[in-house]
TrEMBL record:
Region spans: Disordered: 472-504
NCBIfam families documented for this protein: portal_SPP1 (TIGR01538)
Domain of life: Bacteria
Transmembrane segments annotated in the record for this chain: none
Organism in which the protein naturally occurs: Ligilactobacillus ubinensis
Composition bias, Polar residues: 478-489
Record's protein name: Phage portal protein
InterPro entries assigned to the protein according to its UniProt record, in alphabetical order: Portal_protein_SPP1_Gp6-like (IPR021145), Portal_SPP1-type (IPR006428)
């Protein structure tokens, strides 16, 4: 690895600045937050620009463009310089994304609240796919952003949501402890038909409106650098800034960020193993105490590929000899080091090695949870920050629907993240049966995986009991005994007259 690359990597590993695309400012310096000045917008973009190098670096590791490919071996007799990359970064992120959002995030209404209109909007936006993409950004970059907006679909305004690359957006907050959003920025470089830069489209999202700017060149806004027809201002009805910021953890670090030095060490060790194997195959032939001649009797000198050398005669009876000169290495010791580094990678990231012997065979659901204990702890942290952002999302959608005259209330909504692991349904059903009479039925039914509404399931169970009783009475002949009866919430058959008297 060349020296310049080492310096850059060390600087990024010890990055001390803000890791997200949030920029905190004193709101008194902005003036009207619903019409921020050019200076305020330029300051926010310039402050965020210095963080892009870290985002690019993390994306490179996820995509496999890692430092091992820049390694140059100098001053070595070996001719080989193998570069082997084992992409632990992608494995760590993909495992976390699948574990966290493999099952759709479940959202249920708070007590006596109605969120059906909101849930219908979420279903129309295919929110499960969006959450998966958002979690991937969180895992790679340590932060994620989403934008709620209205788009025209066949002439009809439709609520939409999109994940925004943190390298192309800024969320400006105040500098208080609450970090309240003031306005958001989404900026995109524009190109002409020849692929040459042609300014930027800069869209500012305030609490009330959307302001679009188009620059002539660069991204700096000024009176002389605005294209004709801009700015363009439209009103939105989300009731707040529609750009939402998420964080992966308190430090806003990616899931593999702290393990990058271990990932580099593993790649270097594996590359060295292959390099040594190649050098072993390309060993030098050493001739001691004599020279070789060709068909014409001429001495054969060292060939241009340096695969053979002459050496003085050895001492003793076997002064003249021919040997292969090879590097020696202890494969067993190297394998111990390989396993040690690999174990450290999985320990540092809480992501288990699924090919490990601990995961062989068939395990019960509870046994699997113990094996994934570290991943569950990581999920607990992710869930807190995901839930906070999703509540903002629900509130913005509620504000829009309320403006359109639809009644809904997302306050107190229950947000559940169910980890995506193999489920033993037999054990779960047996546990629900054993809990009958000990734990409320509504609580027991909530143990079922997936998006289930316990209240709706209880109604269906009670209806099935009533239908079965009625069917049995009809089979026996005569008038059904259940015509004047009903089933209560606990599944007990009672007279309707009695029920009416109890209520009075």
């Amino acid at each position: 690895m060349d020296e310049i690359k080492k310096v850059v990597t060390i600087d990024l590993l010890n990055f001390k600045g803000e890791r997200s695309s949030n920029v905190a400012v004193d709101p008194t310096l902005i003036g009207d937050v619903n019409d921020p000045s050019y200076d305020a917008i330029n300051y926010a973009i310039n402050a965020q620009k210095v963080r892009i190098e870290r985002f690019n670096w993390l994306e490179d590791y996820y995509e496999g463009n890692q430092d091992i490919f820049k390694r140059q071996l100098t001053g070595s007799l070996g001719k080989a310089n193998e570069k082997v990359m084992i992409n632990h970064a992608k494995y760590i992120t993909d495992m976390n994304v699948g574990f966290t959002t493999g099952n759709p995030i479940a959202i249920a209404a708070g007590q006596s609240k109605n969120i059906k209109p909101i849930q219908e909007q979420l279903d129309d936006m295919d929110i499960s796919a969006h959450d998966t993409e958002l979690e991937k950004d969180l895992s790679v970059y340590g932060c994620g952003y989403e934008l709620l907006y209205i788009k025209q679909s066949n002439g009809t305004p439709t609520l939409s949501i999109q994940k925004i690359d943190p390298r192309g957006c800024v969320l400006v907050t105040d500098d208080t402890i609450d970090k309240n959003p003031l306005f958001g920025i989404h900026y995109v470089q524009k190109l002409d038909l020849l692929g040459n830069p042609s300014g930027y489209l800069i869209t500012v999202y305030t609490q009330k409106s959307i302001i679009a700017y188009r620059t002539k060149m660069g991204y700096e806004l000024s009176d002389t650098n605005i294209a004709d027809g801009y700015p363009q201002v439209t009103q939105h009805y989300f009731g707040d800034v529609p750009l939402i910021s998420y964080r992966n953890n308190e430090e806003k670090q990616g899931d593999f960020e702290q393990a990058i030095s271990l990932i580099d060490a593993y790649n270097e060790l594996q590359s060295d193993r292959i390099t040594d194997k190649r050098n072993f195959i390309d060993a030098l032939l050493v001739v001691y105490g004599f020279s070789l001649t060709d068909e014409k009797g001429n001495d054969i000198n060292v060939d241009k590929d340096h695969t053979m050398i002459y050496a003085p005669p050895k001492t003793g009876d076997n002064a003249a000899a021919v040997e292969w000169l090879t590097k020696s290495f202890d494969e067993s010791q190297i394998q111990v080091l390989v396993k040690s580094i690999k174990d450290d990678i999985h320990q540092m990231t809480y992501v288990p090695n699924m090919l490990d012997e601990n995961f062989s065979g068939v395990s019960s659901g509870e046994a699997m949870k113990y094996k994934l204990f570290g991943l569950y702890q990581l999920l607990a942290t992710k869930e807190r920050y995901l839930t906070k952002g999703i509540r903002q999302r629900l509130q913005l959608i509620q504000n829009l629907l309320t403006f359109k005259g639809q009644q809904c209330d997302a306050s107190g909504a229950i947000i559940s993240i169910n980890p995506n692991i193999p489920v033993n349904m037999t054990d779960i059903i047996n546990n629900i049966k054993n809990a009958d009479g000990v734990i409320p039925q509504k609580v027991a039914l909530s143990w079922l995986p997936g998006q289930n509404d316990p209240d709706e399931m209880i109604k269906e169970l009670n209806q099935e009991k009533q239908d079965n009783i009625k069917m049995q009475d009809e089979i026996l002949g005569g008038t059904s005994q259940t015509e004047g009866q009903t089933v209560d919430d606990n599944g007990n058959v009672i007279d309707k007259q009695q029920e009416s008297g109890d209520k009075s």
